[in-house]
Write a structure and sequence with these properties.
With about 220 residues, the chain is an alpha+beta fold. The chain has 5 helices and 10 strands; from the N terminus they run ββββββββββααααα. A 6-stranded antiparallel beta sheet has the order 2-1-10-9-6-7, covered by helices on one side. It has a 4-stranded antiparallel beta sheet with strand order 3-4-5-8, with no helix packed on it. Helix 3 runs antiparallel to helix 4 and helix 4 runs antiparallel to helix 5. It starts with a strand and ends with a helix.
């Protein structure tokens, strides 16, 4: 099993042994006393666990440990800074072979649906854990999509763009920018027919938040 750690400027790779046994601690900085990634074996499964200095998050909530699964993102927090790790099969270099810019944004291209799927998982993880990088990464991705030629566009281009706009509006709510979020969702009502019910629920939620603020 391969573990890919997202730092601010690079990806760092760690490997777990094929035999599921023991306890391991990894960090991109060898001098760090409180290791960021802490993993233990239990009943032939690998688990990511929290320590006194590092907490594991599950959909934005702190938890003691989570079972590691292939092709999934996990979020860790140390010193109020969140980190992403991705788990992949030890013999699959697909993820590590993707190209990243300095902000660790996945590139996309025509025919590479897998890349788009990883983008979606990455952005969902950032948004669900209220990561401060989410809004900038989504905005940059939307800007990049607009600059693609027809030949460069991925399949299901409109579905992917709508996804980005939905997540952007969702993040705006978390940022407390209710007017901007409401405007974004209302625009989506005209372009994203497949998610109309979700959008209407979010608009109702914004209304409820405003009522709470006025009390």
């Amino acid at each position: 099993m391969r573990i890919v750690l997202f730092t601010m400027d690079r990806l760092v790779e760690f490997m777990l042994p094929s035999q599921v046994f023991g306890t391991f601690a990894f960090d991109s900085n060898d001098d760090e006393d409180t290791k960021l990634i802490n993993i233990e074996a239990d009943n032939d499964e690998w688990f990511l666990y929290s320590t006194t200095g590092v907490r594991v998050l599950d959909n934005g909530n702190y938890t003691y440990r989570l079972k590691l699964e292939i092709n999934k993102f996990y979020t860790l927090e140390r010193d109020n800074v969140k980190y992403l790790v991705y788990i992949e099969d030890a013999f699959d270099n697909t993820f590590m072979n993707f190209k990243y810019d300095q902000k660790l944004k996945l590139t996309i291209g025509k025919g590479n649906d897998c890349n788009v799927n990883y983008n979606i998982e990455y952005i969902n993880c950032l948004a669900n854990n209220k990561d401060v990088r989410a809004i900038n990464i989504i905005d940059d991705e939307l800007e990049r999509l607009e600059g693609l030629s027809e030949d460069e566009m991925p399949e299901d281009f409109e579905l992917y763009r709508n996804f980005l706009n939905r997540r952007r509006a969702y993040v705006l709510i978390d940022m407390g920018l209710l007017d901007e979020a409401e405007e974004a969702f209302k625009k989506l009502l005209m372009t994203d027919d497949g998610k109309k019910e979700y959008i209407e629920q979010e608009l109702e939620y914004i209304k409820e938040l405003r009522e709470q603020q006025s009390e």
